[in-house]
Predict the structure.
Amino acid sequence: MINEYLDGEIGLADKAQLEQIMADNPRVRAEYERLRKLGTMIGLMPEVRVHPYRFRARLGDALDSNHKGYFTPQRAFSAAMLVVLVVFVVTFGLFAYQQQIISGSSYVVGTTSSDEPVAAAAHQYFVMDTGVGAEQFFSRLALEHQLGILDSRLMSAVSEQTGFFEGATCREGSPLAPLRFAEPLPHNVKLTLSGSQVGDLAGLAEELSGNPARVTVPGAASLRGAGRLPAGISELDILTIELKFI
Amino acid sequence: MDTYLEYNSPEVSDLIVRCQQGDRQAFDELVAKYQRYVFNLIYQHLGDSGDLEDIAQEVFLRIYKFIKRYRGNASLESWIYKVVLNYCRTHARRRNVLARFFVQPQVRSDDERSFELLDMVADAAIDPAKSTEQRRLVEDILVAVRALPEIYRNILIMREVNELSYEEISEILGISIGTVKSRISRARDLVRQKVNLD
């Protein structure tokens, strides 16, 4: 009731009753005085005096420019956030697209040099039909390595992954003849290589067989074309190639 | 124009009608009439963090844009108060984010500012012997008021500084008069708990 009395929002009957209580009870009177003092003190909050023309001129300029051309920190912040959002979305989109291509989950292989449409590769898994025997192929590989023609990193990769060269020997009196391997070699060999290394193997197979290497993507049409690989393979850092031998 | 006469003077009612018709001259008159009122409201509810003029500009741009929606259900001053409070709420939320991203309001020099703050303690003809003590008390109280939760701070400022009636506060805040009474009482208690008024 003291609050309402203080604010002048009390009815006449209550007003008289409260005034009587305050007259009789110093504690109630003191409480009223404290609240009144509080109100007075809050009312001493600094006041703002506005220049009669300066702000109006500024506001007029803002209105004249049809709410454009004036820049407050709030508007600057909003604009900056919008730019950041756009950059983020574009960057993220490009990143996601790039990741999709690298993972090979659904990229599209380009066209061959003969402009023949190339099937989309479903996975970074390729099959190469070499057209030659495994012994002949790997013997030639070892020979080219001995002659320094073959990239030593490719030879190391093939050797480590297959183990075919362990215990392999040269035939007596014929160093250029095929090697004698410790065990018969399989007709299918899977290797994990880079795209450019696959290109080297394809070239080797073509040279031995005299025919273009046939590279296929499982589930897609065969890719033929003068020993060329599907566009995009050479850019891949890693892929799996299954070599098929006769 | 008659629609607005219940809560406004004929002069203000005429001003409203002209503003609603898009009269720029009338709007300039309205700004001249209420700019001090608006600046004070903003200062009371948000304090001066250097962006008082920017906020006032945003408020008046909103008034210019939305004055066609004023229907005369309350005085123009109450309606403007409502616009200010709504914007202050939005701005207060945004201010923290701005600070986080190091966007500081542009602080203008005194020569560039459109306003100045008047020391009301000095002007209140308080006993000079006690002026230092009273100034400290006023500052303590204002700090306590600013630290109140928004629902109590706003209502206390509306009542103690702007001397609005319970009905006016009720209309501006959209709450019942009973709620106004209880919040004012609670707000005063909260301040008293932090400041010794004896």
